[in-house]
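Sequence only, no structure available. Ideas?
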Amino acid sequence: MTIARKVKVRINRSKRYVFARADFADIAGYDQVGRVLKKLVDAGDLLRIGYGLYTKARKNRITGNLMPASPSGADGVILEAIEKLGIDYKFDEFSQRSIDGDSLQIPSFISNCYQ
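Reply:
I predicted one. Tokens follow.
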């Protein structure tokens, strides 16, 4: 099995949506994995969301543009990436109350307060 095939199979089988280049270090070297990930981005299978960070992609049914495949949307991808990087965070008061079910008002976006 080729390196590209191994990487693609791992991505397709994963329940996660955010991947770092280091997730594939056991498959091949740094540069080889980078080339494979770039080809997957060019093919529309992945979106590059940061230096060495990628997310699964899908086409938007309305616009035809690529978007994160996560059911939680961009907010879910951001939170998964932050957790993957080990960054401490907490939600603002209004977002946290909505998540906890203490408020019926839904914030228009999730804002994070970094510590």
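The beta strands are 18-20, 46-50, 53-59, 66-68, 89-91, 112-114.
Hope that gets you unstuck.
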